[in-house]
Every structure is written in C-alpha cells, then in structure tokens.
Design a protein that fits this description.
Chain lengths: 363, 363
Amino acid sequence: MTRIAPSPSPSIARLLADFDARRPAALARAVSIVENQRDGFDALLASLHPRIGRARRIGITGPPGAGKSTLTTQLTLAYREAGLTVGIVAVDPTSPFTGGALLGDRIRMESVALDPGVFIRSLATRGSLGGLSSSTRVVADVLDAFGFDRILLETVGVGQSELDIARSAESTLVVLVPESGDSIQALKAGLMEIGDLFAVNKADRPGADRVRNDIELMLGMRAGRGLQDAPAHHGVDLGRIGNPARAAREAARGEQEERWVPPVLRTVAAKGEGIAELVDALDRHFRYLGTSGELTRRRRARWREQIIEVAEQRLRRRVWQDAGVQAFIDSVLPAVEDGSRTPFGIADELLRRAADILTRTAT
Amino acid sequence: MTRIAPSPSPSIARLLADFDARRPAALARAVSIVENQRDGFDALLASLHPRIGRARRIGITGPPGAGKSTLTTQLTLAYREAGLTVGIVAVDPTSPFTGGALLGDRIRMESVALDPGVFIRSLATRGSLGGLSSSTRVVADVLDAFGFDRILLETVGVGQSELDIARSAESTLVVLVPESGDSIQALKAGLMEIGDLFAVNKADRPGADRVRNDIELMLGMRAGRGLQDAPAHHGVDLGRIGNPARAAREAARGEQEERWVPPVLRTVAAKGEGIAELVDALDRHFRYLGTSGELTRRRRARWREQIIEVAEQRLRRRVWQDAGVQAFIDSVLPAVEDGSRTPFGIADELLRRAADILTRTAT
C-alpha cells in the first residue's frame, strides 16, 4: 500500500503531542510552521488532516474603513459569551498605504487578545496574493484541527483577495458603510457572487438606509425579480437567485432547490448594535448550507483546490529549483535577449526536462 | 533542428502584416489577444519577439489619490512634445472600492487619448494579481514591438502589485503626497527597494517639504550614511546604496561600482510643475542603467521570469486540465473529506501522472 502521508519527524511528533494536549505554545508554533511552509509542514498538516471539518469558517470582507475589525471583535465577543472558542485570521496585504489603518484595527482587537478562548493571527502578503489565500486556508485548517468552534477570516477587500479568501470560508459576510458611495458600483464587481450576507456598518450615519435599499434592489434584480419586489424573506427562500436562466430551467423540470436570499443587516459595530441579529443570520446560513448540500460542495471545492495547490507547489520546487534547469535557463538567456530564441520555444524544452525530473523523482 | 516557435495561423499572419504596417486596429487586436491569452497569442508573441527591446519601460506607482494618472498624463504630454510616442498600461485592480477614483483618472487621460502617438490600455485584475503582472509584461512587449518609444506602466500601489509591476519596468517612479501621512511607515514596506526615483506630488500642499526630507533621510540611512549627511547628489553618485555590507566588501576589494541615488523630486502634476525635472531625472536614470550594466541585468531577469511563466502555464494546462487527472481528483475527494486520505499523499500520485502526461505530450 502506498504510504499515504509523510511520517512526522521526531520534532513534529513532539509538537503534535503538545498540540493534542492543547498547549497554546504548540498551537502558535504549528500555525507558524504551516504559514511559512517550514520543514515538516506537510507532515504536520497530514497528521492533523483527520481532525479538520468541525469548525465553521466565516469570511469577513469589505473596503478599508468599513469597520470590519470592530465587527469581527464584536462577533468574537458574542461567540465567547455563548461559550464558543474563536480563531481569527486577519489577512493583511503588506502595503504602506493601508498600514496605518490596519495597525489601528489591531489595537482594538486587544480586548479579545488576552482571552485564552481566542486566537488571532495576522498574515502578511509575501509575494503573490495567491500564496496568501493558500496560507489562509492551511492556517484555518490548523485552528480547525485544534478545536476552535468558529474561525473568522478577515480580509481587506481590495483586488481579488476577497474572492480568494471567500473560497476558504463557508459563509461570507460583506461589510459596507454608508460612505461606500457608489454602492451600486461596489456591488457589480464580484461581491454579489461571494456575499452570503451583507452588513451596512456605521449604520447610524446618514445614507445607511439608501445603501441597504440599493443592495436589496441589486440582489432582487439578480434574482430575476422586478424592481418592485423587495426580497420578502431574509434567509432561506424559494426564489430565483444567482442564475435566473438556470432556475427557470430547473423550475420547468419540476426541480426547485432551496435558495438562499442574502440578508442585508444594519450594524453599528462600535456600539455593539445589530450583532445579535448578525449571529442569528450566520446561524441560519449555516443551517441552510447543511440542508441544501452546499456545505459539502464548498468543502469539496476547498479540498480540490488544496490538492492541486500542494501538487503544484511540489512540482514547482522539483522542477524550477533543479540545478540543471536553472543552468539551462541561464544558458539560453542571451539568445532570448538578442531575439534569436523565444520563451515559447524554450518552454517546450523545459517541459521535456520537467517530464524527466518528475519521472526520476517519483515516489 | 527543433522548431523554435509555433508557426502563426493564417489569421495571425494577417494580423502581423497589418501590425507591421502600423495599423492602429491591428495594435489594439494584438494587445487584446495577448492580454487574454486568446488563440494564437503565443505564436503572435513569438513572431514579435525579435522586435522587443527598443522601448523604455517606466513604472509609476504609489497610493491611491497621489495623482499618478495626472502625472502620467503630464509625462506623456512632455514626451509627445519631444516627438516621442508613448504607450500607457494602467493596471487597475478590479475592486469596487477603488472603482470610482480610477474612473475619474481615466477621464483625465482623454487629453491624450485622442492622440495617435499615444496608446492607452487599462488592464483589470482577473484572478490573481500574479496573472496581472504577467499580462502587463506581455502587453508592454506588444507595445515595444510596435515601436513605442516610452511605455508607462501605472499601478495602484496596494498589496504586492507595485512590486510585481516594478519588475516589468526599467525605471520605477514612486509617487507620494504630503498627506501620505506616515511617510516613514510608507517607506519601510518595500517601496525603498523598488523606487529608482521618488516624486512628492501635490507639492504645493503643506507638509511636502517634510515628506521630501523624510524620504531623503530614509534613503540616506539605507545608504549607511549618518543622519547628518543629506544625499548631496541626486543622480549618479558613488556611495553606499542598498547594501552597506556588500558595498563595504566591494570597497575592500577595490571595486566601487557606480551607484544610483534615487532623486526625490517635487511636482504639482495638476499644474504641470516639476515635469521637466522628472523627464530629466528619468533620462539620467536610463543612462545610468546603460553604463552600469543594470539594464541588461533587469531585462534578463524579466526574460527569465517570462520563460518560467510560459512553461508553467503550459504545464498547468496540460496537467490540470487533463481529463484523467480531473477524474482522479474527483474520485479521491470523498476520502479526503472523511479524513482517510490527505492532499499530501495524493500530490505524489498526481505528480506521477503529471510525469506521464508531460512525457506523452512532449513536442
């Protein structure tokens, strides 16, 4: 029988023992090892693998300044009051221009930072954001395996990071503010697809109701309903969400799946308002995920991505870091520079070498 | 002899003929084909390959609101007055939260948009920003091959995008504003490494001189000089820039390479102030790149990246889109879900299949 997983080294085995004993230091070390892909990270993850699946993963995204961190803190406090443990992964694109704001947010989180039932980790971008979404997923896996009940994945909603992170989450909350301004614009760009729930935060400011209405209209239009029909039920609803054409076909076939209508909530996180309703909505979404089979689908999609990612990472390491491949590339660079060879012709030669390397190093 | 590059299809051959005749429609089509990796894009790029290398590529980055687009426009006007042609690639992370500002910037650019000697393309993020840096590079390649004298690569400086794009550029200009606020903070996070030139824009606002001083101090400190020594020469200077330890070793060996001291300029782009000085500084940097050998180094680094990228893309296409691989992954998902198999054990099996596929499909 093929060896299923790499055997842990003695030091990883010791770490696992401490991890099993729920030692906080072991948790921190395990997170650090998998986040940075240090020696033994794959053996560690493989050993933790059977324990993954109990936690609920909630993504929280939105523009800078929406008050996501404050909302995350309030949600955490609410969960703690209910006796649940919470892991928070804050994805922090390393940029000087958002540095100031994020630092402020992290200070606010100290009201939960001293609670042993809460674990907070900030992940900084190193290299591409693709790498970050992968780190987020495996860090969440470690927290899941350790036994946290809720895992909050908080991202700054710029670029594609929110889409990547949303794929790691089972419920994605999009946080907007009255000053989101061009809120219709905001809703076009992919947030509609990933938002399972919407919250207009700082809802005590002027414009909050307008933003809520805008969002509900957009959701209603995407559902194929007329402008005059506001969504009646926030929560599970039979309706035509997401793909009106497909829904019409399904209706014609007599199939009518349960569909989720994203609720649009009002919160004033700084005052703790609207938090109970948010917790409730998240619970309802999780029940919907279970009864509709969507939870299984999303988790399988996550595993599929991770499988491909792990394989790609290994392949890249074996091939691009091969000394022969490096030497070959060095040797052709002058020809590429002077125009006599192109990257495309060279690519095929590289793939031949890749085939050889992979065949040679197959385990 | 191995076929060096894929032969263009008839339609690509026709496109190339129109491209050679410098037809604007052919340029736009070529850009679109390579940006979106449409059929024939690799044959097209391979055919254009020998013509690449004449243009000067200038990266322009900085926080949202720094006035980059205005500065880019002014730089473009200055180059046009000098009889040079300009291609502009504006990298636009697709995010609802910056959508409004970027739209405003694009409107300003219309003062150059009608000029046949200027070509403007906005690239939106699709998927990871890694893909975007790759698109930027190949679009710049097409503009280069078409004959543009200057190619301006403008990015919103958030996340790692500015670092990725800077690798496509030969000179990178970092644009800050007096309200950059925590400017020392701003300078920590990698901008110091990529900035060949700095410009404090909107320099008629209060705080401009302080920001300039802060930047110069930071540059001086990185150069290993004391706080009391302000950089004396903005431009080519013998000094200890970048890596004081290495510079000390080189000095010990009797080597003292020309080093570049990034100038810190004042501009008020909206009024066209400081633009002539900027053009001059960019020209000086380009001369430095030539005499120091740095131009060759940077271009080779760019080709190396592109070679690996092309090979990786091909590999990914051949392996992950293989029907057998997809079916295999589908078949193991339930076991991964229930914990009896891990992504790590599966990865090795996938690599064996990858080796087979690559061997089979080798050209």
